[in-house]
Amino acid sequence: MNTSMKKIISILLVSLFILSAATVALSAGSITEDPKTNPDRPKNKIYNISMLDFEKTQNSYWAKQNDAGEWEAAPVYFDENEECHVYTELAGKPLPKDWRESYSEMPYDNATMEMLSFILYDEATPKSQLAKLNWSFTDNGEVLHLSAKEAGNAGMAFSLYDGVLFSGLPIGTESTNLAEYCKIRVRNLSANSKFTLGFNTSGINSGQYKSCPQVSITDVAVEANSGEWQTITFSIVKANSDTNYNNSLAKNDSGVPQSRWWGNLIQVYLFPFGYNAAYKGAEMDIDYVVFGSEEYVTNYKSELEKDEENVEKIELVKTPTKSTYYVGETIDLEGLEVKVTYKDGHTEIRDTASTVYNFDDASDASEVTLKYGKATATYNVKVIGIKDFVIETMPEATSYKATDIAKSGFTPTGLTAKATFEDGTEKTFALGEFKLEYDFVGSGTQTVTVNYHGARASFQINLINVVAIEAEPLKSAIHFGEKLTTDNVAITCIYSDESKDTFANSGFDANNVAITYEKKYGETVVTVTYTSASLEQPLTCTTTGTYAKPSGLTVTAGEGAKTVYELDELFSTEGLEFALVYDDGKTVSITKDDLTKEPIYDFSTSGDKQVTFEFDGISATLDVKVNELDLPDTKDSSTKKPPAGDDKGSPVVVIVIVVVAVLVVGGVVAFVVLKKKKK
């Protein structure tokens, strides 16, 4: 192929490329960027907070040691002008300046709020709770150690609110971009299997700060008598609803208790052994309690956890002083020295560790395992068994109401038990140091068993329970589809001691009450049934009510409703809204399935039409339109010509013009090249 021909072919190929590009440009549409895909768009904010990670720096703001070496809370002060401005003498007045400035602007997306913590030591209720606790710091000052000095409601109250910088942690459900989750890391050395978290928010007590007559209670299950760290992550919304302490939460239409975890979190109460359930000598270690998004709390690690992950091995330098235990006792590590070797080679001596042991059974060589991270070391101790176990002091009361037990649990105040050990030693145990086993059903004599690590003794009580119920006639009319609850029907409980009380005061779960009625207009029979595991059989009573008959039916064309039809087209109820109207002014929405007859209509002819609906003899109509039949044009469409000028903007015409232009240009260029060649 000669050079001239190559040039001609090249020119034609370029022309073809231009033609292709022009064709694509004519057929492609515009693309609009979705602003939601913009990577620079700020993400939703979920604030997280780790103020209750008991590490040295944060502890130093609110805790100090006195001259005797005992830990105590720094005094809490309130600003002279505004009482909501809080500070401690250790934290400054009211807060350290550098701390305030470092959090003056909140970043987007899971900003960690390192709020200061303050013990509310000067208020009556928190002070009485704190007075029941001994507290100190262990694990090189990184862990809060708590032990109960006496039985009762032992706890600590902390505040997240300083009134100047931050008005509390925004809380709620994560689906609404609010902090919902909590994570705790604890070593539960007590016999109790419950850790209770109390909280006060801007939605409780109108956010009162100095005094908290109410807190919302949330229970978390923990393993009892465990010297190992337990890490538990949970939704406070769900846990608070599940706890529903004292049946105090409002319920939705489905009867589900609604959590009070909303608004701004202002105060946090820690009840390490459960709410009002501490016993003398109960112990727990707390590494941290953190709040925030599920991702944040799940991935959160304290400095102690990070240290544990880097441990290569541990060696027992000195065993604890105590080497003999009685069944049921908890481990005592006083005197322990453990050499910890880290992966980078450095070592340190520690006086605490996580422990695994079993003091439920007698043994001359019961193994205790010390753990720090994944590294372990062991030593043996002696455990002395129980020879005899008896009830030492009977409860102050002999009769208990099932309603009180439903509200607050079974608490036989004054009950004590005595164990005689194999070496002759006798020990008395108070309520909370042993488990109570019972299955209360019906009324009358019931047996309660005291279980102390497998040693058992029993006593009996008289249970006063509901034996019958009665209901008053309904004061308000019943409307179609209405679900009756204990809010609609006044129910009275009759007890085995012949006393009476309202169901509202009983403490029983309203979800266990079923109320039905006959759908007969006028006076009708209403049946109330209460079912409970504490009853030998369901309790039933009847009363009367008025089942109202509607006076009218309405139908409205809502969004998406069709009101224009073609001849013989089927009618559609989609988008229609139906309602029953009553003489007392009540309006009740119903669905098409509630209608007692199918819609009546005739779309065989065109024009304005009516569709009729019926409910128990009451009718309503909807105006619609039926179009005339649209007949096709009988003229030969092949003889039609487009109006002059209509094809000028046609893409086909444009393409043809472009093709012709390209070919002309190509021909001219080829002619010039050949002419030059001849010369």
The CATH H-level homologous superfamily of the largest domain: Galactose-binding domain-like
> What fraction strand?
35-45%
Task: Tell me the Rg in angstroms.
Answer: 39 Å
At the third CATH level, what is the topology name of the largest domain? Jelly Rolls
CATH architecture label of the largest domain: Sandwich
N-end to C-end Cα span: 20 Å
In this structure, how is the largest beta sheet organized? Answer: 7 strands, mixed
Indicate the percent of residues in helices.
Answer: 10-25%
Report the CATH C-level class of the largest domain: Mainly Beta
From the helix content, strand content and strand pairing, which structural class follows?
alpha+beta
Task: Note down, in words, how this protein is organized.
This protein has 679 residues and is an alpha+beta fold. The protein folds into five domains: 48-304, Jelly Rolls (Sandwich); 310-384, Immunoglobulin-like (Sandwich); 386-464, Immunoglobulin-like (Sandwich); 466-547, Immunoglobulin-like (Sandwich); 552-626, Immunoglobulin-like (Sandwich), CATH 2.60.40.3630. It contains nine helices and 43 strands. The strands form twelve sheets. Strands 1, 6, 8, 9, 12, 15 and 17 form a seven-stranded mixed beta sheet that branches. Strand 4 (76-78) and strand 5 form a beta hairpin. Helix 1 runs antiparallel to helix 9 (651-678). The longest helix has 28 residues, at 651-678. It is flat and about 105 Å long. The two termini are 20 Å apart. 27% of the residues are buried.
List the helices and strands and how they pair.
Elements: H1 3-27, E1 48-53, H2 56-62, E2 63-65, E3 71-73, E4 76-78, E5 86-88, H3 97-102, E6 112-113, E7 118-119, H4 124-130, E8 133-138, E9 143-148, E10 156-159, E11 169-171, E12 181-188, E13 194-201, E14 216-221, E15 230-235, H5 236-243, E16 263-271, E17 283-292, H6 294-299, H7 303-309, E18 311-318, E19 324-326, E20 337-342, E21 347-350, E22 354-356, E23 363-372, E24 375-384, E25 386-393, E26 399-401, H8 402-408, E27 416-421, E28 426-430, E29 435-437, E30 444-452, E31 455-464, E32 466-471, E33 491-495, E34 500-502, E35 513-517, E36 522-530, E37 539-547, E38 552-557, E39 564-565, E40 576-581, E41 587-590, E42 607-615, E43 618-626, H9 651-678
Parallel strand pairs: 1-6, 19-24, 26-31, 39-43
Antiparallel strand pairs: 1-17, 2-3, 4-5, 7-10, 8-9, 9-17, 10-16, 11-16, 12-15, 12-17, 13-14, 13-16, 18-20, 20-21, 22-23, 23-24, 25-27, 27-28, 29-30, 30-31, 32-33, 33-34, 35-36, 36-37, 38-40, 40-41, 42-43
Helix pairs in contact: 1-9
